[in-house]
Specification:
Helix content is 55%, strand content 0%. By secondary structure, the chain is mainly α.
Length: 170
């Protein structure tokens, strides 16, 4: 009886360890398709500044994925405002959201025994992103202007001397 109890306890420890594993698909998460050496845990700005070679690999990877998304899915739906414009890469919000969408898609694909891929399509993934793009009118001026229009606001927040001088005293 003791061997049986020890065996069951060992199995329970394995199950708990698998449940606590932070990667989306345990060991299979390492098999997600990414460019060699690509680190998706750093921001675009950070990786561009520190490692231009990795940034170039990430950028190409994202571009290929967006091309697949448009060709395989978006061109077939009727809502034209949900299409990704060719100048998407010049829109920082689009770049960040499409990066997150790509990584979520890969995570969903890594877990084929779940409803993660359906969830990616229907609730907080693809269609939610397209609704966000439409609501924010991300590509609006580019669609009406016959090409990319840089319509960023004239001012934006940057950490600078004025900001640093206003830091609260401890």
């Amino acid at each position: 009886m003791t061997d049986s109890l020890e065996s069951r306890l060992s199995n329970l420890e394995d199950v708990v360890a698998d449940l606590l594993d932070p990667s989306p698909a345990g060991e299979d998460a390492a098999e997600l398709p990414t460019a060699a050496g690509t680190d998706w845990t750093r921001t675009w700005e950070d990786v561009a500044r520190r490692d231009p070679e990795t940034c170039a690999a990430r950028w190409a990877e994202l571009g290929e994925w967006v091309e697949w998304l448009d060709r395989a899915i978006l061109q077939w739906q009727a809502k034209k405002s949900w299409r990704i414009e060719p100048c998407w890469w010049k829109h920082p919000v689009a770049v960040e959201e499409l990066t997150a969408l790509m990584l979520a898609h890969r995570t969903a694909l890594a877990n084929p025994d779940s409803f993660d891929l359906m969830h990616w399509f229907t609730t907080e993934g693809l269609w939610a992103t397209m609704r966000d793009f439409e609501a924010m009118d991300i590509f609006g001026s580019c669609r009406t202007g016959g090409g990319h229009v840089d319509d960023r606001p004239s001012g934006h927040f940057e950490v600078g001397d004025d900001f640093l001088r206003g830091m609260p005293d401890g």
